[in-house]
Amino acid sequence: MAGPTDPHGRRPVVVVDDLHVEYRVLTTGKRAGARDVRGGLLHRGRTTRTVHALRGISFTAYEGDSVGVIGANGSGKSTLMRAIVGLTPATRGSVQAAGRPSLLGVGAALVKELSGSRNIVLGGLALGFSREEIEARHDDIVAFAGLEEFIDLPMRTYSSGMTARLKFAIATARDHDILIVDEALAVGDKGFRAKSEGRIREIRDDAGTVFLVSHSMKSIRDTCSRTIWIERGSLVMDGPTDEVVTAYEAR
Amino acid sequence: MVTTDPDAIAPATRTGQVPLTLVGGRPPLPTYLRQVWQRRSFIYALARFRIEAENQQNRLGMAWVVLKPLLNAGLYGTIFGVLLASGRPPHFVEFLIIGVFLFEFFATSFTSGAKSITANTALVQSLAFPRMALPIAVVVQRLLQFVPMLAIMVVVVAAFGHPVGPEWLLLLPLTALFFAFNTGLALIAARLTVHVRDLNNLLPFITRITFYTTGIFFSIEQRFADDPLVLRIASFVPLHEFLTLARGLLLDDPAFEAPPEFWLYAAVWSVGVLLVGIVFFWAAEERYGRTD
Asked: Cys-Cys crosslink for B186: which of A47, A116, B68, B135, Cβ 3.0 to 4.6 Å?
């Protein structure tokens, strides 16, 4: 199923339809399974709370879109991004996507006991590159991440900024269909942020689709053609970045 | 950027050609297996790099791959062959080395295979690739580490005076079957651990129970010679079949003659467990890496 095209004839690549995500959490903070909710011998007396993280989000992203996602902490931005890659199941509604997106979040190295160089090879192979293609791109990736001096050190020795830079460089070496960047650039320094925003614009212009979650309105304005504003799990506004960001800042 | 091999990347990357699919679904099994096959160099590289990394952290490096099971064999040999020396099978040293080395391949594949998804959350969450590559890479890594052990085993057995014969070459198909069996088991364990994290705590117990019950350091045939039922059951235990076959091939003693039907049993087990493992693991593909 190809779905309808938009007025400009572009194809939809992510269709989110009335998406609800609910977490059931034990009051201890532990995620509750079905068993805990039924209450069995071992689980009697535990109380659960339902957190309604997303309450009916709908939108369609087209090829060549770069979508900024903004909202306060805890508004559901990361949950939405994880739902788009399938890491968080929908309670109701559905997400459809063309292909399997990569999600760049703040967090652990790919294989932390291996050197940056080895991680480039592994990341590239996992994404489907051949060995020769990786050899050809290796130096570009290292240069883009700005890690020439450290590339032979194990990734466990990297700072969070260095890790994020390398992961971004690996993931964007691929001719991208859908890329999701969840605050991964926030830990990078100013120079890297400018470079990676340039890369995101390239992907967008190349008919890829990028989602950028950020608290930096400047980043959003610089890179995104369209912006989605989420508050308490609901869509507040969806439109051209300028309008949405202006409204968000005036709230 | 231009990719030279269009099949290497998820086919038809350009969004125009990729149909929308429900996120959280999984590709049909044949497509999925093809994707895994496309990632074969990823699997091999992951296995190789892991071995390298493990070696770099130790001064003796690669030697540990062989030293560890040798020390194990030495320890068990001392305890069960000298201290509790009753009922020691003939050719005890060779018998024990074959047992401990084969068991090492099995146990490491099983334990690290079980953790292959849960221990690689970062990789699984950030990049899109068929997850089956991870448990397979673990077993490939253990296979690569089993090769030098196999060499040492052969040398030790030959040094103890067992004539080297062409039938020793049958160790290769035996290793292939053992690899298939271990892969299937690792796939099953990897998925189970994702559903029930508590299994991680049980793994050492399971391997230990297997170790003490499968005739690594004692001979099941000798110990239960007058209990046909136990022998009958043992003949259907896959690990027992692999051990018996390996000892039958290498040891020059009619006492270790392996029943030929063990080849059939071992093959059925290997193929069966591998197929079950593949289907069982694939059926939960969308579940791996989830944060709920």
From this structure: B135
Q: What is the mean pLDDT of residues B218-238?
A: 84
Q: Does residue B92 have a pLDDT over 60?
A: yes
Domain parsing of chain B, residue ranges: 27-287
Domain assignments of chain A as residue spans, ordered by start? 63-249
Task: Check A109 against B122: CB less than 8 A apart.
Answer: yes
Kindly state whether A107 is in contact with chain B, defined as any CB-CB distance less than 8 angstroms.
yes
Complex confidence, ipTM: 0.78
A130 and B41 within 8 Å at the Cβ level: the answer is yes
If we measure between CA atoms, which residue out of B124, B174, B131 comes closest to residue A110? B124
* Mean pLDDT confidence for B211-220: 85
Task: Show the tokens assigned to A108.
Answer: 């652990």
In terms of CA atoms, which chain A residue is nearest residue B290?
A87
Tell me the chain A residues in contact with residue B49 when contact means C-beta distances shorter than 8 Å: 111, 114, 118, 121-122
Q: Would you state the pLDDT for residue B224?
A: 83
B13 min Cα distance to partner chain A (Å) = 6
pTM flag (> 0.90): no
Q: B17, B20, B140: best mutation site toward chain A, by most A Cβ within 10 Å?
A: B20
Point out the residue among B9, B41, B50 whose CB comes nearest to the CB of A131. Answer: B41
| Non-local CB neighbours of A102 within 8 Å, separated by 6+ positions | A85, A127, A171, A174, A176, A178, A179, A180, B126, B127, B128
Q: Contact at 8 Å (CB) between B106 and B192?
A: no
Using a CB–CB cutoff of 8 Å, tell me whether A101 touches chain B: yes
Pick the CATH number of A63-249 from 1.10.10.250, 1.10.357.10, 3.40.50.300, 2.40.128.100: 3.40.50.300
Burial class (CB in 10 A: 0-12, 13-18, 19+), B93: middle
Q: Does A161 touch chain B (CB under 8 A)?
A: no
* Other CB atoms within 10 A of residue B94 CB: 24
Q: Test B22 with A96 for CB contact under 8 angstroms.
A: yes
